[in-house]
Structures
1.
Amino acid sequence: MRHPVLSLVVLVAAAGLLILPLTAHHEITAKFDPAKTSTLRGIVTYVDWSNPHVHIFMNVGTGNNQVNWAVELESVVDLQKAGYKRDTVKPGDAISVEGITARDNSRQIWGNTVTLTAGNRRVFNVPEEPATPKTAGAPTPRWPDGKPRLGPVTGTTGYWAKPSASILVQSGTTVRANKNGLLANIADVDKVAPFQPWARDLFALRQRNRLADDPQYLYCLPPGGPRQFQGAMGVQFIEDKEHQRIFVFVGSVDRNWRLIYLDGRQQVGQVRGDADNPLYYGRSVGKWEGDALVVDTKGFNEKFWFSNGGLPHTDKLHLIEKFTRTDTNTLKYEVTIDDPGAYTRSWTSGWDMQWVANEELPVFFCQDNRP
Amino acid sequence: MTQRALVAFILALALVTGVFGQNLGTGTGGGQRGTTAAAATPAVPAKPTPRWPNGKPLLGTSPGEVSLWLPAGGGGERFINADSAVPVPDKLRESEVPMQPWARALFAYRLENQLEPHTRCRPSGGPRQFLTPYGVEILEMPSSQTIFIMDLGGPHTYRAIYMDGRPHPADLVPSYYGHSIGRWEGDTLVIDSVGFNEKFWIDRQGTPHTDRLHMIEKLTRTDYNTIKYEVTIDDVGAYTKTWTSGFNLRWVANSELFEYVCQDNNYAPELMVGTQESVDRTSKIVP
């Protein structure tokens, strides 16, 4: 410890007492070391109330030995849902923070608990959302032409969230992973998908690095492919019947939109015929097969991770996605992955999403607290 | 390399590589990748304003049509007229804008130091979202009580304008686009917005604003090819009274939305995710 006073203040908790955060938007153990637990006490100097993660800055120590620490917390969206506001903690407040500190020994801590000294009141506590029991919803809402409506009925609001899986894993396999797609057991790598050797090794490397190289978090690059349906912020479908196209509004990362054309066009010419310009969201064409929207997408670039957890893909990636609103509350997502550049055969995966009624898609920008 | 030198270097690099191409206001910046914006304006008189069956003007793309709205001046037009420039009707000169002293000083600084957050892929609220050479599509569907402005020239995002009569929420988290509610006054869409953050510029020059900004925008499609865009800036944090500016949007046929992602190939990632004075974020993993 470089600061003698600090060492008095930082109470290193017993090794092995690992308190892991539950709901962070990205893999915080890449930055913070779960083994380095600490408790800090000090005075708040600034509150950066912005996404993706709120930061509280606090002075720790006294006199000339004060140092400023950054306390990282959940997103504005999550903290607000839990009832907290940007003035819940204010500059000048005395707080204590229990958490885990940065691997690089910079003065940053992930706040597992924050307590206002006055009144000994615990704040910024985001409880793990209880698993919602699956209830049979009302029948699937439909357009006048009989097709299912993927978005909200006129006059109502709502969006899709809470995916039942957090990583793309081939159907019929069970693999434990956290919300960010970090495997509970690295030995499960081979079970995840029919990888080619290089892809398997790259996937394992990304996992061993605790997803630290994720372009979505490093540079707020778009979550193309199945990953847009794995995000914590959910998605919305806007069906533009007049122009035979569907917008997917992606709640996570940078509030992007993806276009699915149902007007019979080919997967070329969507960017003025520039076939050499592969895309994050690819070129998507869709059609209805009974009650399922079937979307065929090609033309991806290789600059993003197409699933939580860092499964590799190449520009040969070809996806067939099937969306079925089985009742008001349930969207069934099925995907066939065909990428002869990274996998030995085509394979399938899928999960359900739940309807979040009476709410708009949260306003979340990955860039928000960047300088 | 000092931080200042680094920033200067990145800026120079970015200018050379065209990251800031959108800021140059050439009017054809989007032409090569996405639009035919440079097509000559037809000499024939414009068709009348298209309308919905209920008589309201249609701001979006007519059924069966493909189109975008681009700034009529190519995006380089000024929101505030320079004192030295030729007077422009309905547009204030710089010295006439009722800026508070700090705002005037900041504006002067920004005119000299054009490191706009837009170039670091921040969404741009207010007039700025209409002032990119890629333009916008106004998404207006009979089945939806929300009008979306698809902001093509930013980080691939959009703005929502609620038309269902809801009020502004009481406790808004400041955001780039603010909270917008719209209504029709005759043939004009009137949008009332509050709840802005201070992390973007409302125009290209750097006209200051604070989180107390209240903006009233009026969009009138005066003929098939034109939307008159007017905005009243009501911000007691930065101005001594309200003031108004605007510009025209130009309808561009046979152009449609495409995937432009600001972060893609942006040569200033350090500025997007890197250092901040108050905390060591030199680690690759950023918050």
Note: Chain A has a mean pLDDT of 88.
2.
Amino acid sequence: MNKKELDRGPTDVEDLLTLLEDIVVFCEHRGAYAEAYGVKKREIIVSLERDDITLCVEQSISGIGIRTCMENRLGFACCNSIDTERALKTAEKAVKMSRKTPSAPDNIQFAFPRSLPSIKGLLDTELTGFDAADAVHQARILLQVTSDYPQIRLDTGEFFVSEKERAICNSNGIFAGEHTGGLSWYLIVLAREGGEVGSFEYEYGCTTQVDERAVETTAHTAVTRALHNLHAQKCQAFSGDIILGPEAVSTLLGDTIAFAANATNVHMGQSSLSGHTGKAIASPKLTVRDDSTLPYSYNSSSFDREGCPHQAVPIIDDGILNHFLHHTQSAFREHTESTGNATGSFAEMPRIDITHLIIEPSSKSLTQLIEETEKGLLISRFSGSGEDVSGAFSGGLKGSHVISSGEVSHPVKGIALRGNIFEILPKICDISSETAQYPHMTLPYVKIASMSCVT
Amino acid sequence: MDVLNTVVEESSAPYTEARFHERNKTHLILRKGELEDIKCETHAGVGIRVLQDGTWGFSSVNSVEKKALKSTLITAIKMAETASPVKKHKVTLQEVTAVIGKFSAPVKDPLENHSLEEKIDFCVDIDKSVLSHDAIKSSLIYYEELLDSKYIVTSDGSQVSIQDSKPQIFVGAVAGTGSDLVSYVDAYGTTGGWEMFSEHPVEPMIEKAVTTAQNLLHASYPKGGTSTVILDPGLVGLLSHEAVGHTVEADTVLSGAITKDLYGTSVASESVTMVDAGVMKGGGWVPVDDEGVKCRDVTLIDQGILSGMLHNRETACIMNTEPTGNARAWEYDYHPLIRMRNTYIEPGEWSEEEIIEETKNGYFLKGARTGQADVDAEFVFQVKEAYTIHQGELGELLRSVTMTGNAFEVLQTVDAVGKTFALDMGFGVCMKGQLASVDGGGPHLRCKLLIGGT
């Protein structure tokens, strides 16, 4: 282990780092390069169902994932313990596996130390004292807001508290740790009136700052949307502009872009964006980045699953495909640097994924987008299925409202959309200034011109 | 088991359940000739759930030491007590007959008897075989095995030991050039051992994946519209699980699923009988659930009439009925939820050939790719293969086909039920906040639904 190049990161996780260091040395003594990743976390979960509290959970979870390489042969083993004896047994398993696996076609690469960003607001010290009673109180607020409306039913919801120590060591001198934490919550509500049930609405919120929890706002937003979904009329086939709400954007655009921008999928011939770098793949209105370095952001942390620095990765700039998401192995293959997109839990080998996908908002409000729409649909949710590889999708549009002469007129149901995401990207004609948060995504409303929906 | 008994006996809560669960998981992924992922994971610990003051509390620990278990029990009780003042409707549990016994999955050739090298070589050979075809651009081979040891002790007297073994295989091929890509995957999983590969050989799966991916590349798109279709057992399984099964989980019914007011009414053709069963060989094999309740078969739809519901002890008490053994937790650090097991439609009398021959015009739909359904039973499924039928004969293959509809409206149109039965949901995993191994299937069915494409 090369300790000269240590970048410890903003760490107070010395015990975990010491164990990981011992594991790496243990593997090295057996002839293997090694990477050890460990996690210790405390979580409190308060679950809601049918307008009531259903369960309260508090538990501590810890574990270690050990990746080894011997003569370019890969091994990986993990266990849900940071007990030294169990950890070393797991290390032994990983090393043994490295003697059995086939030699990789490319040289197996572990990360090398690089300077880590200093990110403010990853852990609010008040979170340490945030206990089950506090979490139950927040859950109670969700229940209270929804119970104020007789038509509203809280189907499911959750308030979640997480405080996590994570650390990583490897044979190349990676030695980093971090203590993060945050609060997140969601609720799914639906409205009923006169024997009719409206389409459900999902709202999510998160923060790293205890004082900035906004469960009441989230609940009010969900309730307002669910009430608007009541009395939906059957819709005829429709042609016009559509405005996808952030939830629909996450399912249709977010997930597809995340898959296609994954450098491993590109290498494996499974991305429709392969060979399109530097080319226009979307409307100039669309800028997409992956960025988990924002201060005080629930999705932020200073290093990835391999110990590489997180950074802002420009995926699409003004419609031009700019950059794919890399971990160390894919970056080595393409003669570039990791973008810090190795993700996964201690029970998974590092894999490429988004950390915090952001579609850049514009300066134009949703109200303006609607006012500029002569004939359109405002869509809350997409319920259907898609093919990651081809981008083809098909499904129902839920929580849809007709826009007529620049105004939202009435909710509609029974309408479906099908097509291919990569054919839709160039048709994006506007983006809102408002955004909503989803797990690992921050997304605006997206307007798409001249779409045809079927019933 | 002794230490679990001690903790449960010493609990001050009116109801306590302690569940030790050790899972040894091996998986490996090969893509395009590269070993992309491999792991051996041990995930073990004890989950303790208590019912105190009519409120559930849960905690877990990655240890079986008595001191750690006692501390976990105290946390679980504290959680219930903390939440209790907010709880509106206090929980009571339906009385059950305690289960004491040892249960083992039906395994002929234990997975542990086969080395990791053998499993790697097996997958490497599959990958080579897929990639040996010039038109195949990429591959995806995924092998997974779950070996579970469970001990469940409840304060109502159940003491259960379960040994489970579930292998799964996934064979995928990608054909095409540039952005015109088509993928096809064939997957299979069950409860059992290495004998799965002699009972369900991989060679036909390879051939299927490679041939169909290439054929799909040159296939045309469907016109769309309401059509007569024949569904294969895989799609019947997905329809049964995703579009019907979730709407008859008692917690979903209580939340206001469409089925709430449909019990005792006709929701399907008289030829349709749908069942959820734990004690049968399939990916959803469960002999006793995680509340220590013996699993029993539940007839969900009896000759077209909506009749059965899937329960845990809490919902059974609310509805004054018997629990069905559907309370399942994915791993020790999850609490039990109502989940399906093997969900299927019972076979009828038609042969596959007869159904095709007696279909004037329509589609033969095979294999479930992905799918989504709401609690109103509206569903959209992507189909792996769709063939036109004209005058009783199979015609051309179509690509990117979806099937859409309301499950109960579709089931009302069933006019032919095949006699050959199969559980065939492929990689049978269901997500409902946590995972569950499930399976589904049935015979071939002829019905009417909306066909869509892209």
Note: Chain A has nine helices and 21 strands.
3.
Amino acid sequence: MLEIDRDLGRFRDIVKGRVRKDLRRYMSSGELIGRQGKELVSIPLPQIGIPRLRYGKNDQGVGQGEGEEGDGAGQGPQAGDSAGEHMLEVELSVDELAEILGEELELPLIEPKGERESQSERARYKGITQTGPESLRHFKRTYKQALKRTIASGGFDPRRPVIVPIKEDKRYRTYVIEKEPRSAAVLIYMMDVSGSMGKEQKEIVRSEAFWIDTWIRHNYDDVATRFIIHDATAREVDRDTFFRTRESGGTLISSAYKLAMEIIDKDYPASEWNIYPFHFSDGDNWSQSDTRACVELLQSRMIPVANQFSYAQVDSQYGSGQFIKDLHEAFGDQDVVTLSRIPNRDAIMESIKELLGKGR
Amino acid sequence: MAFIPSRFLREGRQLPAELEEARVAITELARSYGLDFFDTIFEMCTYEEINMLASYGGFPVRYPHWRWGMEYLQMQKGYEYGLSKIYEMVINTDPSYAYLMDNNLMVDQKLVMAHVYGHVDFFRNNLWFAHTNRRMLDEMANHAAKIRRIIDRRGQNEVEQFIDLCLSVDNLIDPYAPHIKRKRTVSEEEIERAELRRDEVQRMPAKPYMDKFINPPEFLDEQRKRKQAELEQLRSFPEEPERDVLGFLLDHAPLERWQQDVLSIIREEAYYFAPQGQTKIMNEGWATYWHTKMMTQDILTDAEVIDYADHHSGTVAMKPGQLNPYKLGVELWRHIEERWDKGRFGKAWTELEDPRDRRAWDTGAGLGREKIFEVRRTHNDITFLDTFLTADFCRDQGFFTTKYDPKARQWVIDSREFADVKQQLLQMLVSRGTPRVYVDDGNHANRGELRLEHAYEGLDVKLEWASTVLGNLAGLWKRPVHLDTYLEGKPVLLSHDGSEFRKHHRKEAS
């Protein structure tokens, strides 16, 4: 360990403190989205510096080279002393970010459902075989084998203990497949992309999805995500399309729920997977009869398999906002159904708390 | 004895044979050119180690603090993304330690060694380094041990916050006089005596009916006022404006024992590093001058020329519109050498006007080498440029001043006039530094408040930082703190009482 690691740790603590303090701002501005790699989130921070008495901006400088008076002179000097003005990029692991999120929002950890485990397979080099590539030859075993054979055949001379392995003596390392139980979850995001969902609404959904991802990933070993967009019909898309698509036309929410059930039935047996459907919409549905179909579908098929069904309604200026009321009427206080309203960006933090606050 | 981790500075950690051979040869060579350096120990380091050392300011052991970690992180990133790479690092101690990065090319290692000897010669001989502690390696480790002990007693957060306070004022020192300690010399008795004197106003002897003519009341009042002023002069401290604000705080701020220890450590390290900021252009130029001379005249093999040229030109390259201290420094050293070699100084030279005559002037004086060694003893960056930046040099180097053109939204060339360039260069050197701030009164308004004065030179302080710094000062002084300065030409008084920052207009002091 280098001496510096302790100071580095100290610095990271300070960074985490800053992120914690500004969590609400990060959540409503959506600044962190797109900064997430597989394991790290890169976080832009105003540079954390030591303030010192310094001169302010300098609007003159000195350069060297060719050119006439009035010609452009490149970048020019750094304004004043640039320290404290540029941004600092600090990487936090997704887990660290999730921990901060969890602590700030007081989210309960998700109780893992014991029986829902997927078996993941892993190859480990633990076995021995008699054939294989030379690069995997097990020297010690090969030698032992050759020694045994030499002794057994009476050719061993203790004064001159030369052992020459032949082809039959050779032993090679090989892998065995091991099964490991891992907790797995699938997030199924559904979004209404009908005309009434504007850019602002989608940005909010994007933020919500980012933080939901972060939290669920923190709680499970394996997390899969699927994306469904719908207007009057539903289709499955990739993440990018999910956040970019805008269609016009009507809205049949049941189409999305049906597609979600198809995906679940096909790929995610409830015995192995923890299933989290999240639906975002502005609350407009085509007809009350479709709403009844939705409730029916949720009641009979989705709820029995899902850990939690979440519906978040993003207020838009067009939507009637009726759907959340209908769902509330139908499901009332059932724990497995979580409803949240998001009037604007500032409400993202509260909404995340509502959606993930049950620890299911 | 200080604790130094064994992985660094280990006795007998030897350079590979090839490098050791080069080291011996270059040491000899540098001596033969007249460079006068401390023994210099070269250490091979991985890039992680060298980044760590660089974030610690070159020292393997520093007191625990988060900002080293931040600097390390940034350096690691810079290196991993291929944006920046530290070629060399050397510290001003006796013996000196210099670090070589283990995956540099052989030609780079030789370049670095030659460069390092330039620096160490400069450390040893330049006046401004004369008062630095050459045992700083031990001292830094002692500081680290001391602060760790304090942390054990007081807890990390409390100590770290206090260190942050101290660091934010650690540029308020007097880099031009580190060895002079001005002390308050007025004793309490003197003040008491002055208090007595104030009460007995001198009267001329006079008959009662003449008294108000011989001792007119205005005269008596005036006397009383004068004595009062004398007393206040005595009571006020420091007697003279004090530039070593840190030293003043150390002597007079109501600090606990451990806080005094921390503050004095920060102050000592600030004084140790100060000359490096004051001589950046000279020092880098000097080292570049010597590595160039030694590499091109003696050391390089044919096979190494291309790599050398590539790396050297990287060092002295200029981004448009920015000043490179290596480039400016080395060119100015060469210019001085040429002038004194050709006898281009003195009355006859100054009066020579015809450019053709000036270009042809050569008395064969041959004093160049001697002159540059003399200059490196006594100058700092500001005096160096002020004395030796000439119109000829300015024209040959193609200097110009730039300004920001808000309409075109870009930096444009403003002027190629020598006077403008020199003025601007000196201004930049001054402004890169710290505003000159003096303690004016440690008992302001007789309420124990601290009044500082900024010796204004036309540049405004950055207000948002000034407010934080004043707040930090108030935290140390535990009473309100004021700063006299100017903003946009108008006299203002900035004040912080520990919870609130204020800006007042003030009347110009007469």
Note: Chain B is about 55% helix and 10% strand.
4.
Amino acid sequence: MENNNIQQNEFKPKGAIAFFILLVALGLIIWFGIYILMLQRS
Amino acid sequence: MIDKSEIRILIATGIITMLFIFSILYAKNSKNIDLPECLPYNKTYEEPKIVKLDSNIYQVYVVAQMWQFQPAQIYIPVGSTVDFYLTSKDVVHGFDIYEKNVNMMAVYGGINKTTVKFDEPGVYKITCHEYCGVGHQNMQAEIIVNYPSSK
């Protein structure tokens, strides 16, 4: 029982964090890709 | 008490939001990128013409109608700054200049204005990108930016 509690307290959703970081990075790449294209065309 | 991860996420979100805001302000102020304007309607805008204000400053009054733009060919020298005044004589048309930040609608009873600088010589196609009828795909015009002189 005590072991279970320790495990729950130390749990870190690594997969979800990695997925979130990748999602944000993808958003930044798409946004800045279009942004740089806009600057080149000005 | 706020969790450490939540604080990290809040900081990251704030940094990314500021990055977007500063990028937009940089484009607006340093690169002089601006949005098109809507002007009050006036019948005189329905007459297509090219007005030369200075050696490299032009006003072009573009009239869109099924299925053409008038004037269909615009000759300007390199380095020209052009004010486009756009309207339509019938339905809604699109106005897209290839390789430029211009994407406007030509609306009957409305005038849209944008300013573009042409630093590179070449032929810049204008296309209608709003479906306007059976001849839509042929609705094109061109801006001929030539050097050293213009026609």
Note: Residues 7 and 37 of chain A are 48 Å apart (CA to CA).
